[in-house]
Amino acid sequence: MISKLQMEKLQTIYAQAHTMTSKGKAASYIPALAEADSTAFSVSMISMDDTIELGNCSETFTLQSVVKVLSFMVATHHHGIEEIMRYVDVEPTGDSFNSIVRLESNKNKPFNPMINAGAITIASLLPGQTMFEKVKSVTSFLEEILNKQVTINNEVYLSEYHSADYNRAIAYILQANGFLKSDVEVALQVYLQLCSISVNTSDLAKIALYLATNGHNSEAKCSKKIINFAKALMMTCGLYNFSGKFAAFVGLPAKSGVSGAIIAVVKDGEIEHLKGPIGIGLFGPAIDDVGNSVAGIDFLEKLSKEYDLFCL
Ligand code: GLN
After folding, report:
1. Model-level pTM?
2. Which of these, 44, 47, 118, 226, could form a disulfide with 113 (CB 3.0-4.6 Å)?
3. 29-70 pLDDT tens trace
């Protein structure tokens, strides 16, 4: 049992970060996300044998762009790194996540799987022919990591689908340039279904712990090489066009989503009574202009500094 005094430093970091929610607002491009309580902020941290929870960690929300890490791993496990790299590069862009501007450079190849262009290409490369099979390949992988069934939030999915002009435009450009392995509609629907998977912060922390331990002791099969590849992508491209600063100031592989979700991976650290590999899952729907949870980023910056987590 941990005493209150020991947790004081952590509680202070949490309380300070919580006040930052007033500096952002919930994503407004679809009603289903705009309705989120922008004052909410919760954090789960999980090591191999212990947990710390701050805030209401049972609240559910959608994975959004955090799922890009999982779909990248599933597609790469299926095809191998070499084949995947024929379709998508691993270079950061410094542009917003749904930017279309670079699709006519770099031989038209999407820059990386953490931006929409790369993630839509990856969606088309997932195992299976139909939308259902491709979605299932990722939900099954996630279910093995979490050891429970997952669901898709249909309201969010339909909202996404009916406001997907940018993503549809990206998918058509990808198809025209030979970077889709399925129809436009299949790739788009798979991508948006995956963005709409429901989770809580504890689920996020388990995904991060899976990455931190290179899949150790998990039913979900993925090679260490691919997991390391995914973490390198998170470090260089995981926080949209804030990735460089996040790597410099926080120094942890992380991935965010516009729902206000963030996962962060601590390979080997010590946070209060948690020791060794630690997975961190955060949810704070008030996001900044780039699309990252304001409270989440603030919390991770202070946590990394106070507990010396910088991994480079
Ligand atoms: N569904 C969102 C989109 O593609 C996800 C983006 C995100 O989380 N950055 O626009």
Report:
1. 0.96
2. 118
3. 898 899 999 999 999 999 999 999 999 999 999 999 999 999
Asked about 29 being catalytic, the answer comes back as no
Atom of ligand 1 nearest to the CA of 166: 10
Contact 42, 283 (CB under 8 A): yes
Instruction: Using the 3D structure, point to which of 147, 167, 195 is the last residue of a domain.
Output: 195
SS3 category, 17: helix
The one catalytic residue in 38, 44, 65, 304 is 65
Two structure tokens written together for 144? 């093995």
The atom number, within ligand 1, closest to the CA of 291 reads 9
- Consecutive H or E run containing 125: helix 116-125
Number of domains in the chain: 2
Does the annotation mark 161 as catalytic?
A: no
Whether residue 236 sits in one domain with residue 216: yes
Out of 38, 47, 66, 68, which one is annotated catalytic? Answer: 68
Summarize pLDDT for 240-261 with one digit per residue, the tens. 999 999 999 999 999 999 999 9
Residue 199 dihedral angles phi and psi, to the nearest 5°: -145, 175
Whether residues 167 and 265 share a domain: the answer is no
Q: How far is the CA of 227 from the centre of ligand 1 (A)?
A: 22
Ligand 1 touching residue 30 (CB < 6 A):
no
Q: Is 195 in the pocket of ligand 1 (CB under 6 A)?
A: yes
258 is a catalytic site residue? yes
Cα R_g (the chain), whole angstroms = 18
Query: Domain of 167?
Result: 65-195
Same domain, 208 and 191: no
Is residue 138 within 8 A of residue 67, CB to CB? The reply is: yes
* Whole-number Å distance between alpha carbons of 311 and 304: 9
Contacts (Cβ under 8 Å, ≥6 apart) of 11: 54
